[in-house]
Amino acid sequence: MRWTLLLLVGLVGCGGIQPLGLATTPEKSRQVIVAALDAWKHGQTRDDLTKQSPPVYFQDDDLYRGRKLVDYKLEGEPKVLGTGLSYVVSLTLQNGSASPATRKVAFRVVTEPNIAITREDGKQ
């Protein structure tokens, strides 16, 4: 018990725990999300994106299920979310023969150590 307390005090130190810095910049993250959304709009799949150099890891259920991205629009400026930046995006999606539907979603983007885009449902 004493060792655990000493270890914890040693880790925290006098200045407290330092927050992690951002794992991206606004410029890089915007380039990454626009390029990934453009690729999806032009018919590329999640597997196609992971085969790029450097690979792009894009986690989105609509992309995974093969829904067609008809159009998109970035809404406003990104917000810090953890170590990444969160973008609100209006997606217009086509699912089979149904009429296209538009909805707002949020994507968290990081570019270090890997490029990753993750859909953050409920965050927009």
Structural account:
There is one protein chain. This protein has 124 residues and is an alpha+beta fold. It has a single domain (21-119), classed as Nuclear Transport Factor 2, Chain: A (Roll), CATH 3.10.450. 29% of the residues lie in helices and 35% in strands. The chain has helices spanning 2-12, 26-41, 46-50, 61-64, and strands spanning 56-59, 68-81, 84-94, 101-110, 115-119. The chain has a 5-stranded mixed sheet. The N and C termini lie far apart (43 Å). Mean pLDDT is 85; it is low at 1-12.
Coarse morphology: globular
Count of extended strands? 5
CATH topology: Nuclear Transport Factor 2, Chain: A
Low-confidence stretches: 1-12
Helix residue percentage: 25-40%
CATH class: Alpha Beta
What is the H/E order? HHHEHEEEE
User: What average pLDDT do the residues reach?
Assistant: 85
* Main sheet: strand order: 1-5-4-3-2
| Continuous helix count | 4
Question: What structural class do helix, strand and pairing data support?
Answer: alpha+beta
Strand content: 35-45%
Largest sheet: 5 strands, mixed
Round the Cα radius of gyration to an integer and report it.
Answer: 19 Å
Q: How far is the N terminus from the C terminus?
A: 43 Å
CATH architecture: Roll
User: How many structural domains are formed by the residues?
Assistant: 1
